[in-house]
Amino acid sequence: MTVVPISDKYEATWKSLFDKAQEAIQNNDVENDSALKAYNYAIEHFGGNHEYTADSFILLASLDYLNGQYENAVEKINHAIEIRIRKFSAVHSSVGDAYNALTNIYMELGLFDEALEIISKTLPIRRENPGTNHSDLAITLNNLGNVYFYLGENMEAEKYMKEALNLRLEKLGDKHIDVSNSLNNLAVIYNSMGKLFDAEDCLLNSLKIREENSGATSAELAETLSNLASIYDELGRFSESYPMHVRALDIDSTIYGNSSHYILNDLDALGSHFLLQQEYNRAEKYCLQSLQIRDEIGQRFTSAVTPILKSLSEIYFGLEQYDKAEPFLNELFIIQEESMGVNHPEIELTVENMLFLYQQTGNEEKAKQMYELLRNINSSKQENYLKDL
């Protein structure tokens, strides 16, 4: 009988715990304690500076991330980075993996400057490590492009997104789903830059790949359809965009049911589609449906609902049904005041609309209140401008 060394038994036990924890995390099972067991086992049998302890920290960070405990996740990832640098080196691929995880958290929190600082450390690791998988390099390039996009630096974002796309084309060919993902990302940037025809080309290629790879009912296909439909809306090609909007909504309804954020996005897009054409009654239908779902899932009085409130106000202005527009404008004002402050430009536009509404309905008292509020906002803007001189 072959005797298995004790150290091998420890390793096998830890790996079993690690695999269970990874499976639980992939299934969003936040109550599963396998990650904590893997960490405790690693500390007991391998010590605080072992690579398995670092891996366990990453598992625990993933759980914190799923639970929205981002600060705890950042702390644990930094522990893992320290261990991996001591164990291997500052340019080891596992350090790059941890930096990527840290970047994702900072992006989730909207801390894009911090994300840029971290990912700028990751890219040299991916480029210079001869063992780097092309997929890891492409992901890092894609993340860097996303960071620059959110920082408003579209030229830099385009550069890194193109590099990620070209790398995937070279390694995977032009029919791989990862190529489709890169095309979608690049289309978002082109759309932001006003390069609508470039965005259209990317999305048409992405659509072809996704229909061939994912079938006719995948979430990825719905995403591409929705993005392409929005481009066609901007170009005024409504007869082409409408069936795409409807198809995206049908796919997402089948996959997610009737109350996911994907459904809300689809309904909002359809509302916008008809609003652009001044088909107010049809736009109203989709906007009210979106608002009802947001009410049911607890989003009614949050900033997430402001685009729909704006759309509904615009719809009822277009229909000259000012009595219906008033409650939505009032709700919009309250949310904006709480989330942005009374001197924000968005508030100013809302107050201008409310002033117009009360003038149209002959409510002189409320029109006067809005006029005074507008004067105060403009006065405050002038004071801030003079302070900055």
What fraction, in percent, of the residue positions are helical?
over 70%
Calculate the terminal CA-CA distance, rounded to whole Å: 85 Å
Number of helical regions:
18
Q: What shape does the CA trace take?
A: globular
SSE topology string: HHHHHHHHHHHHHHHHHH
Q: How would a crystallographer describe the biggest sheet?
A: none
Number of strands: 0
- Cα gyration radius (Å): 26 Å
Low-pLDDT stretches are none
Overall SS class: mainly alpha
Strand content: under 5%
Question: What features would you describe in this structure?
Answer:
It is a single chain. The chain has 389 residues and is mainly α. The chain has a domain at 26-89. It is built from 18 helices and no strands. It has helices at 6-26, 34-46, 51-66, 70-87, 93-108, 112-128, 134-150, 154-172, 177-192, 196-214, 219-234, 238-256, 261-276, 280-296, 306-318, 322-340, 345-361, 364-388. α4 (70-87) runs antiparallel to α5 (93-108) and α9 (177-192) runs antiparallel to α10 (196-214). The mean pLDDT is 91.
Topology:
Blueprint (H helix, E strand, L loop, with lengths): L5 H21 L7 H13 L4 H16 L3 H18 L5 H16 L3 H17 L5 H17 L3 H19 L4 H16 L3 H19 L4 H16 L3 H19 L4 H16 L3 H17 L9 H13 L3 H19 L4 H17 L2 H25 L1
Helix pairs in contact: 1-2, 1-3, 2-3, 3-4, 4-5, 5-6, 5-7, 6-7, 7-8, 8-9, 9-10, 10-11, 11-12, 12-13, 13-14, 13-15, 14-15, 15-16, 16-17, 17-18
